[in-house]
Amino acid sequence: MAPIINPAGKPKLHSQRKLRRTYFNRAFAAIYSLAILALVYHHALALIQSKSFLSFSISISMLIADFVLAFMWTTAQSFRMNPTVREVHLENLEKVITSKENFPGLDIFICTADPYKEPPLSVVNTALSVMAYDYPPEKISVYVSDDGGSELTLFAFMEAAKFGRSWLPFCKQNNILDRSPDAYFKSNYSSSSETQNIKEMYEKMRTKIESVMEKGKVTDEYITSGEEHEAFTIWKQGSFTRQQHPSVIQVLLEGSEDRDIEGNPMPNLIYMSREKSKSYPHHFKAGALNALLRVSAVMTNAPIVLTLDCDMYSNDPQTAKKVLCYYMDLPDNPNLGYIQCPQIYHGLNKSDIYGSEYKPLFQMNPIGMDGLRGPNYVGTGCFFNRRVFFGGPSSFVQPEIAQLGPDSVVNMPINGKEVMKLADQVAACNYEDQTNWGSKIGFKYGSLVEDYYTGFRLLCEGWHSIFHDPKRPAFLGDVPISLYDALGQNKRWCVGLLEVTFSKYSTIIYGVKSMGFLAAHSFTHYAFWPIWTIPIATYAFLPSLALLNGISIFPKVSDPWFYLYAFLFLVAYGQECVDFIISGSTFERWWNDQRMWLIRGLTSYPFGTLEYFNKVLGIATKGFSLTSKVVDDEQGKRYDQGVFEFGVESPMFVPLSTAAILNLVAFLYGFLKINLDGLFVQMFIAGFGVLNSIPIYEAMVLRSDKGRMPTKITVISASLVVVLCVSSMFLH
Ligand SMILES: O=c1ccn([C@@H]2O[C@H](COP(=O)(O)OP(=O)(O)O[C@H]3O[C@H](CO)[C@@H](O)[C@H](O)[C@H]3O)[C@@H](O)[C@H]2O)c(=O)[nH]1
Ligand SMILES: [Mn+2]
Description:
The chain is of the alpha/beta class.
């Protein structure tokens, strides 16, 4: 293990600066806070003056809704107080690291969990893209964790190991930028006999992998050596299932022996599927990552660890070196725990209808957090200092066996008996019994957003993190392409976030104590994400229902208080929009992002909250439902055209459609009514709802494709609107 040191008198490897808008943001926040105080006063007044039970109930509902909005706005200001951007000076790196031997080792973890939801071919592409990093290959080890325990995935990787011997030298000699073969062959590369040749090899590999996928198992005709044959025998024993099987660890490439077709060393490539048993919890991805930490410690124990999801391939071969520009400064910054690259996606449709880019979450807010303690960990594209997994900077937690410690030096062949035996032992399902794994050591257990939770805990322990967001994205990933998938993912996040919110490591108490007010508040903003459902649902239903009953709940246009509402709404929305566009997006994408925020407020946020409470009460739990990465052709086409995909009879769509219909009814009613005095704001809100709901109406009425709104949902929702309207009439 090469030490990460920085010789004195070093050239500058990276620099940072505060964004110019910082001061504007701060002044602005002060003004907006005053407006919020005025609103509180206005609400208090309304509450005191309310004359009936009904008006009191309405006032208190609006007060709570606005309180939550104000709370979320306040926590979000932490992202705006000290935004910091960084730049690396890669050209100076070779002045600091003068020979290959001095590069620190890099262990890369790739997680996959289901060959049918995460096609092995694309996992292979991810692996090849990082195996081909511009970095000494003898320093790279790629570990693939297969929680699906699938021979199909192992087979795909055996093929990848063979293809890699040609692919790596091809990339390096031709200075290819897209080192995921799939991305490369989809780009407009210049054709030559060499590229033809390599493309043919890729196609051959692809056909093989796909036909094995179709068969559902690896039959003898695909096996070329006795060694391979032996590797698959374990699956042939009848008792092997994905929930119950012994660990499988296969070294597919060994750097010290295997060479590419040009005779250069290859990186290590290791396939592993940790042992699974129904009687032990496996902790989903966090469990997989901890098994990876241990197995890699036994084999290579590199000081830098990169975690990657199977659907996030490397888009820039220089990334590992760029990251070194931060790591080499470690002596000056001994608490640097991890370097997070943003999640950026390929294949988004032009206006990103599902807001899948999550631009604020993945690209804008981390800049703000970087100026505080550092960005949150987002599960993929993150380079860790291995040491962070063993306690805080000044409180080392010793693992149970010395070989797992960050300072242990491995000098045995990774394929040797001794190493393999130990690897098997640490990949066992009962290995973590009575140990600190998941609590004080490794990735933390207890939340479905193991990434957010682990990052938060690490920063609380005293580590810092850095946000690395170069112009050419370091990694590119897949997005969910149906509304149901997008919301399902968000729902899982909500469950995970609430698990943190209500744990003893809550961001508001433990967080503030450990990392200070502002930094903790950036985490609090996410911890409370699901409560956005309160104001969104209130605003979706209450103003419309009141409008239908002729009850005015906002100030008249002629009332000076009206301007307060107008200011609060326009300015908050305006600032979000401007920030969005400044950070390189479009108005259209911002519009869809805010629409998805509203949609989540009626779907994944409340349903995630429900699921969380079910889990607490011990009623059914879903666990980690994977986001599907497989694209149905028709569905893909609709996505590319920017058409919303409903299709599923999900209960989540019921509140959404109900609100959409109600807003339309209220808006039309208001339109026909002549005397609108005092109802303008409610008309505006209903109209805003209608504008946002256009794709929903289309899906209910105009479309006949498979992605339309299921009739059942439309009927239930329409009936609910009737019920709501009638019962509200009885209330006053
Ligand atoms: O039991 C499991 C479940 C999942 N995974 C892997 O976890 C990754 C993320 O799963 P995915 O279904 O793609 O979830 P997303 O919602 O797209 O992922 C986001 O949210 C997760 C937390 O909920 C983070 O772990 C991810 O990094 C982040 O990209 C994938 O590589 C899976 O193979 C496992 O290894 N084991
Ligand atoms: Mn994913």
